[in-house]
Request: fold
Amino acid sequence: MTDTTSVQTLKKNAAGFPSLLGQSVAMIAPLGAVAATLTGAAEFAVGSLPLAYIISIFGVLVWINTPYQFSKKINGTGGFYTFNAVGVSPTYGLIIGYMMWFSYFNVITNAILFTSGVFIPGTVSYFLHVNIGTYTWIPIMTVFIALITYIAYIGIRPSLAYSFTASVIEILLLIISSIIIIIKAGPANSALPFTPIPAHGWSPIFVGMVLAIFSMSGSSAVVTLGEEAQQPRKNIKRALLISFLITGVVFVLTSYALTIGWGISNMSTFFQSSVPGLIVSDKYIGLPFTIVLFAFIINSLFAGSLAPLNTSSRMIFSMSRDGLGPRFLSKVHPKYKTPYTSILFVAGLSYAISLLAGIFLTPAIGFLYLISASSAALFIGHILSNVGVGVAYKKMKEFNALLHGFAPAVATVILAIAIYYSFVPPAYPVDYSIITAAIFVIATTIGVFIYRRNHPERVNNAGKTDIEVQSTIK
Reply:
C-alpha cells in the first residue's frame, strides 16, 4: 500500500462541477469543431449534414458509456490508464494509458498547427485578400503554446475557470448565430436536411457521421481530473453526460443553420471554402458579428488546446508517479500544486512536433497527419477500453448485460466503422499517420512487456497510487 503522506499529490477539491463541465466542453471546442470537423463532415454528408449529426448523437452516447461506467467506480489523474490498470490488469492499463496519452497529446499538436497555420491565414486571406507569409504561422504558434502552457502551469482553477467561461460563450454564440440564420433564411428552411435525399443515399451520411462523432468525442477527457475534482464519482460522470447532451443539441442546430444558410443543393462546395462558417455568418448577420465570431473561434481553439494539455500532462504524471514513466515527470509544483514538469514536457514536445510537421509537410498537410494519428490511437484505445469495462464489472460481480456488454459492443462496431471509413483506402498523409500510430502502439506494447518481465513489481503498481490518493478524497 502506498503511503499517501509521502506521495506528491495535486490540489484536492479544486474543481467543482461547473469547472469539470467546462473541461469537457472545452475539449470538444464547439466553435473550433464547427470550423474544422463539422466542415469535414459536410464534405461527405453534404445537404444531409444535420441527419449525420442526429445519428452521431446515438453513437457518442454509447461511446461515452465506457468512461461513464468506469468513473462510477474508479477515479484518478490517470484517466483511462487508471480505469484499465485497476479494472482489468496493470499491463493492460499501462498499454492503453500510453495509447490514449499519444492521442490526447496529438490533439494539442494538430490544434495549435491548425490555428496558426491554417485557420488564421485562411481567414485573413479570404476577408482581407492578404497573404500573411509562408512562415508567419511559426511566431503565432509560439505565442499560442506559450499562453496555454502558462495557464496550465499556474493551477487547475485558472485553467478550468477560463475553460468554463469560454465554453458558455461558445455555446451561446452558436445558438444565437444559428437562430438568426434560420430566421433570416425564411422559405429556404426545409425538413430535407434530415433525410438521406441530399446525400443520395446512406453511405455518405455514415462517413460524415464518423467525423461528427469525432467532433463530440472530447468530453471523456474530464476523467483525468479525478484527483482534483470535488465529489469525483458524482461530478465526473455528470460532466461527461451533460457536456455531451448540450453539445449534441447545439451541433444539430448549427449544422442545420449552416446547411440552410449555404444552400442544401450547394453543400458540395461547403468544404472547399476556406472558412464556410464565417462566410455564412457574414452573409446573414454581418461583418461585425463575424469578426466577433472569428475571435471566439480562435478562443475556442485556444481552450481546445489547453484542455488536452491538462489531460495529457496528468496522464503522464500519473504513470510516472507509479514509477512507469520518467521520474522527473512526477513532480508537483509546491505553490500551484500542478504537475508542472509534465506540463512543460508535453507543451515543449507538442510544439516541436507541430513545428516539424508544419515545416516538412506544410501546416495543412501536417494538421491532417497529426489529427489522423490522434484519431487512430483514440479509436483503438476506446475499443480496448470497451472490452475493459465489461471485464472490470465482471470482476466486481456487478456486470449488467446492457451497460457493460451490449453498449460497449455497439460502440466498438461504430469505432470499427470509423476506422474503416477514416483510413481505407489510405491516402497521403493518412497512410503515414496510420504507420506512425501503429509504430507507437507496437513499440509501446513491446516495451511494456519487456519492462514487465524485468520489473514485474513496478508494473503491478500501475494505478495503485491514484486509488490510494482517491481513498483520501471525500
